[in-house]
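thought: fold this chain, then report.
action: predict
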Amino acid sequence: MIPADEVVATRILPTVRAMVAKSLQDRGLTERGIAERLGLTQSAVSKYLRGRVRLEPLVQESPTFRALVDGLAAALAEDRVSNVEVLGRILEAVRKEEDRGVVCRLHEREMPSLAGIGCDLCVRAGTSDLRQEQEVLADLRAALRDLQSLEGFDALIPSVGSNLARAKRDARTPDDVAAVPGRIFVMRGALRVPAAPEFGASKHVAEVVLAAQRGRGSVAAALNIRWNRALGAAARKLDWDLLEFDASLEGDAERIAQVLTRHRRAPEMLYQAGAFGTEPIAYLLAPTAMEAVGRARALLGALKGRGP
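observation:
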């Protein structure tokens, strides 16, 4: 486990010190003068100026930290800022970059498991929103493992590929919906999930989830599959509620939500039968990603004549 503070101490602060030291040197200050202003030893300043300290390119290129360095160097060169104020300005810049900025990017690089939650853990640690995001991602990861072991699912994948999406409560935009970056597809006879689920990774299936959540609040997950009459017959054998919408509405979340609102209850399957240039697609709707995959398993069983 690597806390964000460690990233700040080992990657950001040394780079900021080196940048300030170099800027002060460019303004004509000696190593001794730089050391006095930065509260460092002359030996440490010498290392910064001679490139003996690893610098972080993300910090060097950051507008926030470049502005910080320019401001600090100007104030320090004229002795019009105290060490306490210097520390305050540095902390202010760090806090700014903790909110989905450089600190987040560096932290995520050190801990890839943070990918998908925006790496603003240090900003929102302990909040209910963060716990909800973790819950959504855990549900998706478990569901994707089940999906990869689901025999016969490859036959349900449409030409455009499948995706599995799960929304947070009261989701409003695709950024509130987690899904697989890219699409789930078949390669060499095996189901491939190209990357771990992330928020904001899908637009199309995410829009269907958002529409379903607006139209029927109990729905928070969707899995898109191919549609044909055989699948419709298998779904009816399971006594599912099916809801058809016109293919022209594909991608129109607001109008799909209206269709769902007018229906008597949340259907297990939402589908459109295709049109010129539009592939027939069905969406398995469920409260969770695990339940959506469970519906895919039940559908495959019904197709094989095993019943519900």
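thought: worth noting. The first strand starts at residue 164 and ends at 167.
final: tokens above.
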